[in-house]
Design goal:
three-stranded antiparallel β-sheet, about 325 residues, 2 domains, mainly alpha, 14 helices
Length: about 325
């Protein structure tokens, strides 16, 4: 019979007592998630194994030995992996200093590597219109598909938020949608006329047909009248994108990216977009300002006469 702790997804008890003490601290006192604690344990186990090869230990390692680890195996891999290892080592030594185990912090000068920022794929307004126009709102399923896509783009919802909507969460007349996002945080998002019209028609006709006289709280239903799942919506979206000849060009999250980018490009302020997206940190929303600036740069390079002039070309007299 396997020993407790050997299940997949858990880490073996660390051999170093200070590391074990630190992991108990972040697990029970700081309340970090099991996944974070497991990642810390794995990274600190690798760090400890390196130190053993040099004759050192985590509790007595010098700043030079910490740097040597990140100059070698600790610095290998993707920037996100190195950043995670750096965070684990820095948190470990900050804990030791705070507890009086050490007077100095050998990781104090460690710098977290900058992660390359991949800009999200964003649809143009014309592409969004083309996709929405490919939905034929005939019959209950067509009405449902159009309502779902209008809400996804028109309110910047995540798929989990969309399929989690209840009948009473959408105020068509008031133009508001109440949704529950990450961390069970509730927010209210404005809803435009196109989304309101599509939802109103679906609720009055298509949804009633799908329910067949039954009652369900979920707003978006599947063909059998049950709640639509994420997988079910992905199937719907793939079908719609294929009809618009844009399969592989967009995903459900692309509509959320496009929602934010189009708002910012039209002059919406960053804080308002942050609230509508449900981002806890405005820095997350700032990603879309980079997308907008890049779009403006492309427009400039394609349209401004001096931007198009190649090096070596002479100005007109």
């Amino acid at each position: 019979m396997p020993a407790r702790g050997s299940q997949r997804g858990t880490s073996a008890p660390p051999s170093d007592p200070l590391v074990a003490e630190f992991l108990d601290y972040v697990r029970y006192e700081r309340g970090l998630s099991p996944n974070t604690v497991t990642a810390y344990g794995r990274d600190l186990a690798a760090f400890s194994a390196f130190l053993i090869t040099t004759g050192a230990s985590p509790g007595k390692a010098t700043a030079g030995e910490v740097r040597a680890y990140f100059a070698g195996s600790g610095g290998d891999g993707a920037a996100s992996s190195v950043a995670r290892r750096t965070a684990a080592v820095r948190a470990f030594y900050a804990y030791l200093v705070r507890e009086g185990v050490r007077e100095d912090d050998p990781a104090a000068l460690l710098r977290t590597p900058r992660r390359p920022q991949d800009l999200p794929r964003v649809l143009s307004v014309e592409e969004v219109e083309e996709i929405l126009a490919s939905v034929v709102p005939a019959g209950p399923l067509g009405q449902r598909d159009l309502a779902a896509l209008e809400l996804l783009y028109g309110c910047g919802l995540r798929v989990s938020e969309l399929v989690g909507l209840r009948d009473g969460d959408v105020d068509v007349e008031g133009g508001l949608v109440r949704c529950v996002g990450k961390g069970d945080k509730e927010r209210v998002v404005p809803m435009g006329g196109a989304a309101a019209a599509a939802v109103s028609r679906y609720v009055a006709d298509g949804r009633r047909t799908l329910l067949r006289g039954r009652r369900r709280p979920e707003l978006i239903l599947n063909a059998r009248g049950g709640p639509l799942t994420r997988q079910g919506f992905d199937y719907i979206l793939r079908r719609v994108l294929a009809r618009a000849d844009m399969l592989g060009v967009a995903s459900a999250h692309t509509f959320r990216h496009s929602f934010a980018t189009h708002l910012l490009a039209a002059g919406a302020d960053l804080r308002s977009v942050q609230e509508m997206l449900g981002h806890a940190n405005v820095a997350t929303t700032q990603l879309y300002t980079h997308v907008t600036v890049e779009h403006l740069r492309e427009v400039f390079l394609e349209t401004h006469p001096r931007a198009r002039r190649r090096r070596g070309e002479k100005e007109d007299p």
